[in-house]
Specification:
- Belongs to the citrate synthase family.
- Pathway: Carbohydrate metabolism; tricarboxylic acid cycle.
- This is Citrate synthase.
- The protein is built from 18 helices and 3 strands.
- The chain has about 400 residues and is an all-alpha fold.
- The protein folds into 2 domains: about 230 residues, Citrate Synthase, domain 1 (Orthogonal Bundle), CATH 1.10.580.10; about 100 residues, Orthogonal Bundle (Cytochrome p450-Terp, domain 2).
- A 3-stranded antiparallel sheet has the order 1-2-3.
- A hairpin with a 2-residue loop joins β2 and β3.
- α5 packs across α6.
- The protein is globular and about 70 Å long.
- About 45% of the residues are buried.
- It binds acetyl coenzyme *A and oxaloacetate ion.
- The site of acetyl coenzyme *A (ACO) has 17 residues, from loops.
């Protein structure tokens, strides 16, 4: 039999790329991650410049439409966002069926399922898929609805009532308001807005790729987002921002870092918030988020947390040459803002839903079913034994 490298099941000649590492799976015009120049561009714009100058809503529009919005377009997006901010009764009822101890990522996954079922009720699966334009319209409504779910989750765990959305606040300030029920301070809103922009998009990461795989079967955008949330929950991906805070709490103080690391590395523990599949010399977004964290450390007068952060970073980088990723500064930043640790990854969802849905629309516009091959390594063909 002729060996054929494109048919690995036939002869084991294919190169297997474990974890698809280094594989270019498709083209995208949404973002460019360049580990060589340590840069990240959204539709051509450096992310740190967007974080310094734009409201998150404008970046959402940029990801969906390819250009920054005009004043009218931004006003239109903001009007839609405000219109769909309230916690819907069916979403609240579904969350209330879950145990209060449920992880908020599970609440969020459930909430998106409920919204999705409502959005496409009465449509066949084929019609539910929709076109990129309708997908972006649905994405706008979902983006607007998620902050109420995140806020309700944290408040429900704390035994507190829902706080109604406020029309006079932008996306970031309103999310903080609905979570804490207090007037958000501008310095906190600014740090939070930057975090949303930095988290919004990162090419073919695991959750975005998951969303594209689901989309490639012609499933609808809410199905793709449910799957993406599931992928993001894992601590090797979005769940790392929670794990960072657990690590910092476990260490406790800067002077305990060296001994803690001796033990953790001896036990081959992964140090959460460090390392990245693409960036091997540092994450392009960390300096911007670290600057936001520094502002919060000063604002809340928590130099102890700043010292602990710096000590773990310098000790781990010195020992392993592995650098922090975005989750490392985001975890303590969200902690200082007052979010429960379990709420951190849902905040990531509130941001990344923009990137995911931009990818869903891009996949729909030039679709091909995503279905790689595998190299079979199980038993050779054999006869089924006769029943005794
Ligand atoms: C928003 C995001 O999703 S960013 C990523 C968030 N995830 C984390 O912070 C979790 C911790 N980090 C990791 O687990 C990894 O760095 C990943 C999964 C992010 C990237 O992994 P990969 O590119 O597959 O690198 P891989 O896991 O093969 O690591 C290469 C080597 O560095 C080590 N390494 C990588 N990251 C870490 C870490 N955080 N702590 C300890 N060792 C690490 C690995 O153990 C491996 O060592 P080995 O060659 O001796 O076996
Ligand atoms: O790109 C990745 O592999 C992980 C990710 O989503 C990010 O860093 O924002």
């Amino acid at each position: 039999m002729t060996m054929n490298t494109s048919q690995p099941d036939d002869g084991g000649q294919a190169e297997v790329r474990k974890g698809l590492a280094g594989v270019v799976a498709d083209v995208t015009a949404i973002s460019k991650v360049d580990p060589e120049t340590n840069s990240l561009l959204y539709r051509g714009y450096p992310v740190q410049d967007l974080a310094a100058t734009q409201p998150f809503e404008a970046v959402a529009w940029l990801l969906w439409h390819g250009e920054l919005p005009t004043a009218d377009e931004l006003a239109g997006l903001r009007a839609t966002e405000r219109e769909h901010r309230a916690l819907a009764d069916d979403v609240r009822a579904a969350i209330d069926l879950l145990p209060v101890s449920a992880h908020p990522m599970d609440e969020l996954r459930t909430a998106v399922s409920v919204v999705g079922a409502r959005e496409v009720a009465g449509l066949s699966a084929l019609d539910a898929a929709a076109d990129p334009e309708e997908t972006v319209a649905r994405a706008g409504r979902l983006f607007a609805a998620l902050p109420a779910v995140v806020a309700y989750g944290q408040r429900r765990r704390r035994g507190l009532d829902v706080v109604e959305a406020r029309d006079d606040l932008d996306f970031s300030a309103n999310l903080l308001w609905m979570t804490f029920g207090t007037e958000p301070e501008p310095v906190v809103v600014d740090a939070f807005n930057r975090s949303m922009i930095l988290y919004a998009e990162h090419s073919f990461n695991a959750s975005t790729f998951t969303a594209r795989v689901v989309t490639s079967t012609l499933a609808d955008v809410h199905s793709a987002v449910v799957a993406a949330i599931a992928a993001l929950k894992g601590p090797l991906h979005g769940g790392a921002n929670e794990a960072v805070m657990e690590t910092l709490a476990e260490i406790g103080a800067a002077d305990r870092v060296a001994a803690w690391l001796d033990d953790a590395l001896a036990r081959k523990r992964k140090i959460m918030g460090f390392g990245h599949r693409v960036y091997k010399h540092g994450d392009s977004r960390v300096p911007t988020m670290k600057a936001a964290l520094d502002t919060l450390v000063e604002h809340y007068d928590r130099p102890d947390l700043g010292d602990l952060y710096a000590a773990l970073e310098s000790e781990f980088v010195a020992r392993k040459g592995i650098y922090p990723n975005l989750d490392y500064p985001s975890g303590p930043a969200y902690h200082l803002m007052g979010f429960d640790t379990a709420t951190f990854t849902p905040l990531f969802v509130a941001a990344r839903v923009t990137g995911w849905t931009a990818h869903v629309a891009e996949q729909q516009a030039a679709n091909s079913l995503i279905r790689p091959l595998s190299e079979y390594v199980g038993p050779a063909r054999r006869e089924v034994p006769r029943r005794l």
